[in-house]
């Protein structure tokens, strides 16, 4: 059929092409526009990973696996048979249970789980890490994928984590710092023939961030609500410095079997994507912004990558064998190593100082939060204890409880009575047998 058609065009001329008149009229305008749009779409899709790796049975911890880029990555790894442990803010959530069930069905992989680890709480991260490490023999771990992030839209006030740190720095930087440094023993102990890869999502906004050693966590400076990307960028920049220092610490660690370090920590910049966080940023978290975002959707569709396109550099970081042959701490973008990075990354002393300073700050924050928790727990416990003591239906287990219950009984009679009153004491207090019976009767009623 196409051959017949092409033959007739060749011998009879282009007028045999359907709508030839319209094509002649509008073609010179429409065709270049169409070609330009197609070229733009092709350009913005970014590079595609070409490496393959058998993921069957490999174990990955993933942060941010419930949305956007993280969701796309766990779908890919899940489909390839990897065991995935998603770290989520909470696990007692019907939506999450359904999400995990759905992901298991879609990937045809029952080895997808969720564990509670709220990156906005250093204590929650510590609880998860402790339970992860508390295992003999040590658990298999082939890598950690850090995709979770908080990105506060423009115009919103400063938000803080459970530990009182600015939220973007707290979740994006401190949460991941705490997680990776606490589970470091698990990374270091993996057998030497295993490729262990830590992949950390970064962002071009790190170019807008700044390392202020006097105020690392943006605690003293005014929060720039009209330019929150500065704080977000700072969180990603600090995360980058952390990755460099963490990698060099892993490299200098001497394994008991004297084999070289088999852990690589790399940064991945996925480019700009049509993800929930991008939608929130562009719509500035408002309904009007969302309407505008929807109206302008063709532009976003053209210029922003899909989740799968954005995930390609992550697949490269997880699959490419050559990344295990070079030192880690590199920045990956468009499925290749990006050499144009912030100059701070090559300042080893700065990376070290920032790492150590953060360690100290985390210690202080954890101590402060522990005291706060203790106070709250004590208050709660005191209330619970008091209720138990006052409740006459609960059998007393200590003399203290017995005394409290007698006090409650006495106060209900309204008179001061000895513990075991005799007739005269009862008479003196005005309690007669008849009114005791009445009290008993009214209780029964
Ligand atoms: N989108 C882009 O254009 C772009 C560009 C460059 C880099 N990146 C980076 O790519 C990564 C993924 O971005 P995205 O756009 O896909 O983000 P997203 O859709 O907003 O997803 C963020 C994820 O982080 C999780 N999260 C947030 N706070 C958390 C906490 N306290 N504890 C545990 N998990 C928490 C969220 O969990 P919930 O489901 O519970 O909210 C969610 O799964 C981020 O690191 C981002 O910086 C994105």
UniProtKB/TrEMBL annotation:
Its domain of life reads Eukaryota
Q: Which UniProt keywords apply?
A: Membrane, Oxidoreductase, Transmembrane, Transmembrane helix
Q: Spell out where the chain crosses the membrane.
A: 282-302
Q: Locate the region Disordered.
A: 373-399, 424-445
Compositionally biased region (Basic and acidic residues): 373-393
Q: Where does this protein have compositionally biased stretches of type Basic residues?
A: 435-445
- GO MF, one example: oxidoreductase activity
**Entries under Gene3D superfamilies matching the protein:** NAD(P)-binding Rossmann-like Domain
SUPFAM superfamilies, sorted: NAD(P)-binding Rossmann-fold domains (SSF51735)
Keyword tRNA-binding in annotation = no
Q: Which InterPro entries match?
A: NAD(P)-bd_dom_sf, SDR_fam
Q: Which family does it belong to?
A: Belongs to the short-chain dehydrogenases/reductases (SDR) family.
State the PANTHER family in the record: RETINOL DEHYDROGENASE, RETINOL DEHYDROGENASE 14
Instruction: Give the protein name, as stated in the record.
Output: Ketoreductase (KR) domain-containing protein
Q: Which organism is it from?
A: Spathaspora passalidarum (strain NRRL Y-27907 / 11-Y1)
